[in-house]
Design a protein that fits this description.
The chain is of the alpha+beta class and about 120 residues long. Helix content is about 40%, strand content about 15%. Keywords: Acyltransferase, Transferase.
């Protein structure tokens, strides 16, 4: 790499304990209401720990760290959908975003990547 190169590490996205469609369906069955946009129900809590680890350690190696987790989550949990209906859920399966989820993420972090 040249001295002017930037190395960027994009951290993990939120992971759910099952397929997000199933998590949403289970939430509907259990609570009889539409899940919130951001929630912790069915969320794999280990990913937050990994994000913190990477956030603290990756910059020490001279690598720029961008937290996808923080872009997709807040104090209420992680983003489940970007609109109404099944076409707007954010995740396909563990660690893989849908197109709407990917678009949302890029809109949040794209300016940190493309400078």
């Amino acid at each position: 790499a040249s001295p002017d190169s930037r190395i960027i590490f994009i951290g993990p996205v939120p992971e759910w304990n099952a397929n997000l469609v199933k998590i949403i369906s289970n939430y509907l069955s259990e609570f009889k209401k539409t899940p919130p946009l951001y929630m912790t129900y069915g969320l794999n809590s280990e990913i937050s720990e990994w994000d913190s680890y990477f956030s603290n350690n990756v910059p020490k190696m001279g690598i720029e760290y961008i937290s996808a987790y923080k872009a997709l989550c807040n104090e209420s949990g992680c983003l489940t959908r970007v609109g109404n209906g099944p076409d707007f859920i954010t995740a396909v399966d563990w660690g893989h975003l849908t197109k709407p989820g990917s678009d949302f993420l890029f809109n949040k972090i794209g300016n940190k990547i493309i400078k």
